[in-house]
Write a structure and sequence with these properties.
It is built from 3 helices and 13 strands; from the N terminus they run αββββββββαββββαβ. By secondary structure, it is of the alpha+beta class. It has a single domain, classed as Porin, CATH 2.40.160.170. The strands form 2 sheets. The protein has an 8-stranded antiparallel beta barrel. A two-stranded antiparallel ribbon has the order 7-8. The termini are far apart.
């Protein structure tokens, strides 16, 4: 289901405001760094600081969007996949060097909007319905808003007298089981038997994509340390 401009602005307001607030509280710290990253969470901007020889912290924002098409339960969909997250992480550098062990949480705004392609009939919950009965069929797939994260990584500038450093991370984010919500806009939308079948369709898709409750995070980038 396509978000309106107002909906998008509301979804973006919280993570952007949180990022700016965290950035303003960090920018005056010593050994401050800014990084640019590309990852499975999208394109990212990251701010970090060292608290000691072995501990540091990072905040970041990630965003990416792309469209694709696919088939689920014999229905063709156009999907709009949005990656949006805010991270707050604590890093432990056990050897006082580049290697780090990281943990923290992410604000998880990742979601998928789906629009069923025009079709003469739809098979929903083992029942066939005409397109005129169903009308426009839209759906939304989303996950837990707060997602814990754990991983390992490297920052080649940490603890060193150098301006530029290479960044890399390998970890996993637990975003919970997906929640699927479909909406039909045709005259049969309020029919209880149809609603039961639509709920069955939602459950089938949730089961198909349930493995995505653990989302791999792989990133690479560079940082400039002030």
């Amino acid at each position: 289901m396509k978000s309106t401009e107002d909906d998008v602005n509301k979804k973006l307001f919280f993570p952007v405001a949180l990022f700016l607030a965290m950035l303003s509280s960090t920018v005056y710290a010593q050994n401050f760094s800014l990084g640019l990253k590309a990852s499975t969470l999208g394109a990212g901007l990251e701010a970090g600081t060292a608290f000691s020889d072995t501990f540091g912290g990072r905040i970041g924002i990630n965003y990416f969007q792309y469209d694709f098409s696919g088939t689920k339960d014999d229905i063709d969909y156009d999907f709009d996949f949005t990656l949006l997250s805010i991270s707050a992480l604590l890093d432990w550098h056990p050897f006082k060097g580049s290697f780090r062990v990281s943990g923290g949480v992410l604000y998880n705004g990742n979601e998928i909007d789906a629009d069923a392609r025009s079709s003469a009939t739809y098979e929903i919950g083992n029942t066939t319905y005409s397109a005129s009965q169903v009308g426009k069929l839209t759906g939304e797939i989303d996950f837990n808003t707060i997602a814990p994260y754990a991983g390992i990584g490297w920052d080649t500038s940490f603890g060193k007298n150098k301006r530029f450093g290479l960044l890399a991370d390998l970890g996993v984010m637990y975003q919970g089981s997906p929640e699927v919500d479909f909406t039909a806009h045709g005259p049969i939308a309020t029919n209880q038997a149809f609603r039961n079948n639509l709920a069955s369709e939602e459950k089938n898709i949730e089961n198909e994509i349930d493995e995505y409750e653990y989302y791999p995070v792989i990133s690479i980038g560079f940082a400039y340390r002030f």
